[in-house]
Amino acid sequence: MAGAVTTLTTDRPARPGLRWPYSPAPLGRIAVLRVVVYLFVPVDVLLTTAWVAGHAAVPGELYVPLRIGRLLPLPTPGPWVEVLQVVLVLAALVAALAAVRDRHPRLTGWLVAVLYLEWMVVAMSYGKVDHDRFAFLVALFVLPSVGRASLRSRDRTEAAGWALSMIALAVVATYTLAAVAKIRFGGWGWVDGATLTRAVVRRNTPLSEPLLEVPVVLRGAAYALMLLELFVAPLLLVAWRDPRVTWGLAGLFLGFHLMTFSMVTIIFLPHCVALLAFLPLEKLAVARWAGRRRKAAGGARGALNANTGHPAGERHAC
Amino acid sequence: MLTATGRRVRSAVTVTIVVLTLLGTFVGDDDDFPFGPFKMYAGRDDPNGLVPDTRVEAVDSSGRLRVVDESSTGLRRAEIEGQAERFRAQPELLAALATAHARLRPDEPRFVEIRVVESLFRLQDSRPTGEQREQVLARWQAP
Q1: Is the pLDDT of residue A313 over 60?
Q2: pLDDT tens digits, A50-66
Q3: Nearest by Cα to A143 from A120, A126, A162
Q4: What's the whole-model pTM score?
Q5: Who contacts A220 (Cβ-Cβ below 8 Å, separation ≥6)?
Q6: CA–CA gap between residue A85 and residue A133 (Å, rounded)
Q7: Where are chain B's structural domains?
Q8: Taking a contact as any Cβ pair under 8 Å apart, which residues of chain A between 19 and 38 contact chain B?
Q9: What ipTM was reported for this prediction?
Q10: Which of B26, B83, B97 sits opposite A127 (nearest CB)?
Q11: Which residue of chain B is at minimal alpha-carbon distance from A52?
Q12: Which one of A113, A230, A233, A306 is CB 3.0 to 4.6 Å from A140, fit for a cystine?
């Protein structure tokens, strides 16, 4: 399934077109993304969604199982959720190490994916469902499918292309289908409503509170948000001839999430991690590797492991 | 190159995820997580309406009135709001919050009364008027 290596092709398409699900993509990017994603899981589980562990103490009568919890024999959350938290963190650290060493990516990756999904089911089964981590979940499930991917790899494979395309689709869907949901639930008049005012009234910061006095700004922001989600986000799916366009778009959306955080203290952090899939992360690893190789060639003989030929400092490659 | 099987499996997964996600968006609901609609802030608030803000208050066994944060009961504000109708219909469910608090904060005095209180802020042309009122949505007292 890993897909044989295809010939090296340039990063720059001859002409702009849609990214195709099976267009070969760099294995190095998969490797770097795995390390970032798996290292982010402990951050998320111990910091940004640490509140999920609080559900362990909540009696079962307040558990409102989602459809997935009713279809699958998932247990009612209880003290075992704290065990899940520890096991998930350990599994993610093992997966990150496995990604660095390019060992057992499927076993370690899918284990993290399943455990994290269960963490999320526990999170969302008490009356509030967030949609901020769809792309991250997709990333967790598709990254292992690529099979082995070395941080030093300069090859491009169809398997890597498919995984990155799925993450890209999920990122764009999170924006574009959020706009569709606004039209479905809020109606065409959503943009002229007071939804952003409500958000600021409930979660204001020193930066956003003054905006309550100038409703035209928040109304303008509602229009801008709708346009951004509906029409700008799909541009991420275009393989631009000039890679700076993709950088600009990814930067725009990362900036949007930072701005949202500064205004209403909501940040789509896992989604931001998934957004990195659009960037040429492979250059990070290759550049570091090339630097090390030059250094090694310059006399540091001991830098290479006698058994594997791998650099002793490989784990720091990213 | 992917094998024919590898490509078939991936194509099937792609179609499944796309179809489930679109179904979730157009006809689904939160219950369909992770394929439910992306509906955070998708509702429309009336520019001349009321903005609700919910909190949990508790009286502990020492008689002190406390505003309860999420780390004291294990439930976030949005989760309290999501189950507000249940609390309103069955206030005795709030006893579960007292139990959760006793588990999470064993050193603190027990809650003997819990109230879910909703503040309502009046808007006029999308601007807060300063008018605010409160209502108790649900109340439980230890027997």
Answers
A1: no
A2: 999 999 999 999 999 99
A3: A162
A4: 0.89
A5: none
A6: 17
A7: 1-43, 50-141
A8: 21-22
A9: 0.94
A10: B83
A11: B74
A12: A113
